[in-house]
Write a structure and sequence with these properties.
Blueprint lengths: L1 H22 L6 H18 L4 H25 L4 H22 L10
Helix pairs in contact: 2-3, 2-4, 3-4
Amino acid sequence: MKRVLLTLAAASAVLVSLPAAANAAPWQSINQRQANLDRRIDQGVRKGDLTRSEAQRLRSEYRDLVQLERKYRHSGGGLSTWERQDLDRRFDRLSHRIYAERNDRQHRDRRY
């Protein structure tokens, strides 16, 4: 009886963890991340989720990251591990800021 309960517990733990593993974000290249961030800012502007000043600030941060990536690539013939990790951290922060700005209930004034 104890063995059956342990087996059921182990099986249920595996089944519960499968959806979480399936939802994990796949690895993306720097170019894919840049395109995704740019697309999310554009969508926020189109839908009115971003005010004009929010969009300008986010686009400025985005351009700064593109410039930093260009600088990193030209300084050593490619990206080092540290540079890649630094860019990933910065892209993550920008991604969180985009999410926060789009969901802060401030909307662009829509005049049609």
